[in-house]
Structures are given as structure tokens and as C-alpha cells.
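Reviewer 2 asked us to include a model.

Predict the structure of this chain.
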Amino acid sequence: MSNILTKATVLVLNRNWQAINVRTPQEAFCMMATNVATGLEIEGEDHIRPVSWEEWIALPIREQDEAVHTVRGQIRVPTVILAVNYAKVPKKRPKLCAKAIRERDGNRCQYTGRVLHPNEGSLDHVVPRSRGGKDAWENLVWSAKEANQRKADRLPHEAGLKLLSVPRAPKEMPVSALIRNTAEVDDWKLFLT
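Predicted model (C-alpha cells):
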């Protein structure tokens, strides 16, 4: 199977034209062929139109288009599709990782209050793993490396430290806020803020 079909390069919009997901061309073709989605023919901001599967497979291949070869000939790979019967914008929390904890805590050590460069800080388990602490939003904070070493496997008060604020899970956000155009698809810029 061609590598082009398995890379997540197709932006999915709900019926209100809001970004809700990213799919592979293979998944997009299945959605289009079963009338769950229509492809968007995009030729600049002024020419965007939904196209049925039957019309899509007959579209000419332009110079900038990716295409797949089939027994019927070449088919243009969509960059954006429209989920025709879906109106919601799903919500989601950022993935729990060091970068997300650092962003939640504003790059600030939660013990000293000092703003840190990313390489000056590390994750700290408020309740250490050795004492049953979990990898959870409510138990992880961004900490200066020296404060983290001082605390070691103790609770903050045992090390003479006090948290600036109680760590909490961030609020759920519309998934559109979490979609990143890592493949740098020009057509996506029309739909992502």
C-alpha cells in the first residue's frame, strides 16, 4: 500500500465547517465512498465547494495535488473533507506529558515561583511514586530541578516546600484547538485558527 494513503493528511470538518479531526486519505476515501463525508474542492479562499464521491473520482489532477493510482485511473487525494451528518465539536484534554504540565503551570516552578526555561525544570510527583503517587494531572507539577532534587521522595511539607497552587487537570477544550498542521497542508489554513 502506498505511504500516501496512511499518513494523517486530511482535515475533517463537521457540517458547520469546524475542524474536528484528522484522518488518513484511506479513511477519507472510505468516508466519501459511503456518503458519510464529501470532499472539498479548494481552489483558493474564493472557490471551496463540497463534491460528491462520484464527482470526486472524476476531478482532474492538478499540479499541486497528491493522487493515487487505481484501476480506474488516478484519483485526487482530498486535503479537507466535510462530515455531512455530524454537527458536534468534540472536547478533549491535552495529552498528559511533561510539555502539557509545563504549559499548564506557565513554565513556573510550583515550589519557588520562579519562571523556568524548559531545560531548567522537570516533572515532580507531589506524592512520590515510591509512596503510591500516580502519573496524573492532580499529582504532577513543573518544578525547578534543584527543588525537585531537594524534595526527592518526600512529600512537599517534609522537604520544607509548599505548592503555589493545587495541581488540577486542565479543562477540556474543543478538539479544533488541539489540531496542528504538522504536515503543513496549505488548504488547512483556511479552517484552523
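The longest helix spans residues 25-33. The helical segments are 25-33, 53-56, 98-104, 145-151. We have added this to the supplementary material.
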